[in-house]
Amino acid sequence: MRFLQLEKIPILEQLQLEEALLRTSEENWCLVTTGAPPAIVMGISGKPEKLVNLPKVTADKIPLIKRFSGGGTVYIDPETIFVTFICQNTLLNLPIQPKPILSWSETFYKPLFKGFSLRENDYVFGEKKFGGNAQYLQKSRWLHHTSFLWDYKPEKMEYLLLPEKRPEYRQSRPHHEFLCTLKPHFPSKQALLDTLTTHLSSHFSLIPTTLKQAKHHLSLPHRKATTTL
Q: Is there a contact between 39 and 12 (Cβ–Cβ < 8 Å)?
């Protein structure tokens, strides 16, 4: 599995790269990203007027991006950690369906996060969410990406509206009552990243890869659905 660690790359560039790797590569990839500048990312079918506080986003000049995968809307900033798996179906021999891939991810992450569970499509401690997921499924290839909250400022969640479609367990809780972070569970962000890398190495044979090597795929012909709004 190719292993690519990214830092301080804008989320638009990361998503464009992920889409290229999904559509043009036949290798297995894991990307781990930290330090991304602030932005709001929506799923492919998201409607900004129903999900985002547009006047506030516009006033504060926060980039608004629609990604190629499904899933919900997230505010991201340097305190967000992203982990993305892009895999051939032969790697794990899973049915290429949302639930089996989510269940595999739960099994994979459980040794890392004590007390963690999968709740609907979210990673939670108890009733509070610390990780959100989105997927893109092809006939013989799949992508599963997660945004983890290392930390967050509650006032930044005011960029997001309460979505009409939301997990049943959330009910109508505002963001500050619905979210939690990973920060209390690790000595530092780097400790979490080191633990994650060690855990990955115990499951897969990792091939360290540079951004320059991965960027080759951006120049290959492929469908490009990730856009700015």
A: yes
pLDDT digits (tens, 9 = 90+) for 139-169: 999 999 999 999 999 999 999 999 888 889 9
* Arithmetic mean of pLDDT over the chain: 97
**DSSP SS3 for 67:** coil
Of residues 137, 127, 133, 161, the one with CA closest to residue 145: 133
Q: What is the rounded distance in angstroms from the CA atom of residue 29 to the CA atom of residue 86?
A: 5
DSSP character string of 37-53: PSEEEE-TT--HHHHB-
Has residue 30 got a pLDDT over 90? yes
**How many whole angstroms separate alpha carbon 44 and alpha carbon 61?**
21
Residues paired with 147 in a beta bridge: 82, 132
Burial pattern 41-52, b for ≥16 Cβ within 10 A else e, equals bbbeebebeebb
Distance between CA atoms of residues 150 and 130, nearest Å: 8
Query: What is the C-alpha separation between 106 and 136, in angstroms, rounded?
Result: 17
Chain center to CA of 164 = 21
Q: How far is the C-alpha of 215 from the C-alpha of 78, rounded, in Å?
A: 22
d(CA 139, CA 216): 23
Single-letter code of the amino acid located at 58 = T
Domains of the chain: 2-212 (3.30.930.10)
Question: pLDDT tens-digit profile of 41-62?
Answer: 999 999 999 999 999 999 999 9
